[in-house]
Amino acid sequence: MDWKEYIEVNPSILYGKPIIKMTRIPVDLIIEKLSLGETVMDLLEAYPMLNQTQILACLSYAAASIRNEVVYSLAS
After folding, report:
1. Which end of the chain, N or C, is more open, meaning fewer C-beta atoms within 10 Å of its C-beta?
2. What is the DSSP letter of 13?
3. pTM assigned to the model
4. Closest by Cα among 56, 28, 26, 20 to 40
């Protein structure tokens, strides 16, 4: 999935936080709700303007955002 079709970052909307295009719904809100146990169906009921593809794009964006992170050990 190409999350770029569904997610945008615009400095004039929500201070540049990643949002679902054509909404003011931030990606981190969707990720947080999923992490707390809400289902895609729960989110579709709560946000009827969204579709499943947009919600999955949030997960894809999150994965892409951390894909190349490097973790350094602080242990000596």
Report:
1. C
2. S
3. 0.88
4. 56
